[in-house]
Amino acid sequence: MTEIKDTQPGTSDVTTEGIRIRVGAQRVKNHNFPDPDKNIFIYQVVIENCGDDWAQLLSRRWRIVDGDGHEEIIQGPGVVGLTPELEPGQAHKYQSFCPLDTAWGSMEGHFTFRRRDESLFQAEVGRFFLASSERP
Predict the structure, then answer these.
(1) DSSP states of 62-98 as a string?
(2) What are the structural domains of the chain?
(3) Strand order in 91-100's β-sheet?
(4) For the chain, which terminal residue's Cβ has fewer other Cβ atoms within 10 angstroms, N or C?
(5) Average pLDDT of span 57-66
(6) Which residues, at least 6 apart from 113, have a Cβ–Cβ distance to it below 8 Å?
(7) Could you read off the pLDDT of 73-93 as tens digits, one per residue?
(8) Selection from 24, 26, 1, 2 nearest residue 12 by Cα
(9) CB burial class (10 A; 0-12, 13-18, 19+) of residue 38?
């Protein structure tokens, strides 16, 4: 069962099988990214075990769509090189970034988790928008 909370456009807050995933994103104005024409967005993810069972994050899958509708799928093991194990009540926080050719876009996806009995499940990361918070 997945529970989605009302959030702001640059955020996401979804709970799946006791795993709550909150994301907040913002644009970085001045950056040292190799391509100065890219728009860089940083996002912070908080993964909290609100359930009653241990879980270990094994992999991630992101769907990134830029402002022109171009889609990119990013998937791989863990998050920023880690596969955190979460007992009930524990949380893991990390920060990463997303470069875009356009001034806005969106991200969504899921993390695959394992339980002690070796069963797997996917915890949803709800769609959040990558956009400047500046008003024209």
Answers:
(1) EEEEETT--EEEEEEESBTTB--EE-TT-EEEEEEEE
(2) 2-129 (2.60.40.1470)
(3) 2-4, 11-16, 19-28, 39-49, 91-100
(4) C
(5) 98
(6) 17, 19, 55, 56, 57, 58, 120, 121, 122, 123
(7) 999 999 999 999 999 999 999
(8) 24
(9) middle
